[in-house]
Amino acid sequence: MDYFKNFINGEWKDSSSGKYTENRNPANTEDLIGYFPSSTKEDVNEAVKAAREAFKKWRLVPAPKRGDVLKVVGDIMLQRKDDIAFEMTREMGKVFAETKGDTQEGIDTAYYAASEGRRLFGYNAPSELPNKMNLSFRIPIGVGGIITPWNFPMAIPTWKIFPALVCGNTVVFKPAELTPKTANTLVKIIDEAMHEVLGKDYIPGVVNLIHGSGRVVGECFLENKEIDLISFTGSTVVGKRINEVGGRELKRVSLELGGKNAQIVMDDANLELALDAVLWGAFGTTGQRCTATSRLILHEKIHDKFLKMLVERVNKLKLGYGNDKGVDVGPCVSEAQRETVNDYVKIGLNEDKATLVAGGDYAKEGNLAKGWFYKPTIFKDVTPDMRIAKEEIFGPVLAVLKCNSLDNAVEILNGTEYGLSSSIFTNNVNDAFRAVRDIQAGITYINGATIGAEAHMPFGGVKATGNGHREGGWTVYDFYSEWKAVYIDYSGKLQRAQIDNY
Length: 502
Ligand code: NAP
Ligand code: MG
Prior knowledge:
The chain is an alpha/beta fold and 502 residues long. The protein has 2 domains: 43-257 and 466-486, Aldehyde Dehydrogenase, Chain A, domain 1 (3-Layer(aba) Sandwich), CATH 3.40.605.10; 261-446, Aldehyde Dehydrogenase, Chain A, domain 2 (3-Layer(aba) Sandwich). The protein is 38% helix and 21% strand. It is built from 15 helices and 21 strands. The strands form 6 sheets. The protein has a 7-stranded mixed beta sheet with strand order 14-15-16-13-12-18-19, with helices on both faces. Strands 9-8-7-10-11 form a 5-stranded parallel beta sheet, with helices on both faces. Strand 8 (170-174), helix 6 (180-198) and strand 9 form a beta-alpha-beta unit. Helix 2 packs antiparallel against helix 4 and helix 9 crosses helix 10 (303-314). The chain is globular. It starts with 5 loop residues before the first strand and ends in a 13-residue tail after the last strand. It binds NADP nicotinamide-adenine-dinucleotide phosphate (NAP) and magnesium ion. Residues 147-152, 174, 176-177, 213-215, 218-219, 233-235, 238, 241-242, 256-259, 290, 392, 394, 420, 465 line the site of NADP nicotinamide-adenine-dinucleotide phosphate (NAP).
């Protein structure tokens, strides 16, 4: 059986703990993928030291050259896309087409980052004084701590690591304990590309990988004073903790947190299209996406008809191992995650008004008993005050609510603490634009599912979904760089701004 390692200072290394955690296939727990190190504070400190040392050299590599590394990373990922996706499905459960998409997002992010190496634009502005020039540049920050969840085990780390590197930072990466193998694959590819592009000028320690739990390894990131910035995607509760400690230590912190996303279907909508979208949005990735459709807000005029269409289709979804052909929905990622889902279903069942119309139980028929499967579940007659309408479940559970107008729909949609993704199906152009204006979310889709972000667009949310930063596209480069203002005075005399000219 394979024992995997950490990656520190350009070498694969065992943890100082000598301890390991098992990684199993959530669709078939008899399938043992390997053992991954349970790392310690010493491991983290060693990795941070290496990253700090590497920063001295990496920051001086020209940004276009740093971009060349990312170009090669993208090329390798593209060559190995199917193999990477197969192993990702085995590790975290979502179906092969989706892990291929997850990998493609990494490729897109690599190529975007590669080209950004030739941009990283600054602004120039005129000086208020004669014979003086004002410029501004992006400069790297230092060592980045990268902490990621398991649901997009390739895309999310690439959203963070690639722009961090192109901007000239070095990184220490802690992936979720549930998806360590994908992290190993990614770091191995980055290191191959570093060797290929830098050759004899290879710099060890630019990217370091430390496996282990959030409680141990993640917490060490927070307290380590040599980590200048932390980029985190995960739950709101952990995000708040990181913001608290990071705030005290003056670390730069980017948080992408939970969601309770809704799809609105108005009475003039194309119902077939809205149906395809909600099935994909609610049950794709077994509902374990931060942008998953967790609430469906139906106009009262189409409510009964649409719900009937939906339940028919949901009951036909095929559960199974995501690498098998014809499977629509994989398992929950772990037993604990499935228990959370089941607990929320019980909460829904205890509500007087809410009624279960699909699923509501573990799926245990045949081979499904070997994994953490849960039946795609729908509650109708949910009201905005219910916990299943307000709290993130992160599983295949959809709450259906009723609305009687656009304003009413938007009010319901906005009625949660989160604000990540949102969607409205309507053929009324005025309603569509009003929804864009009034929905409180970082992402709004018109006639599209709540999921489907593209790598070159800003990604993130408002309210409790984050702390104002965005990943993706051009926006993320602001997080990974600082501004330096440069004044060049060629007048040959001391010119005092604000004083000599006024
Ligand atoms: P989580 O428990 O917050 O874990 C996320 C990461 O943080 C994992 O690597 C975890 O380590 C680590 N961690 C846990 N406790 C920590 C601590 N005290 N200090 C530092 N790091 C710590 O979230 P999850 O349950 O894995 O992921 C699901 C959540 O992520 C959902 O709430 C979802 O909405 C959110 N999410 C958000 C986005 C977005 O972009 N907005 C995208 C995907 C997911 P271990 O798990 O290995 O112990
Ligand atoms: Mg696993």
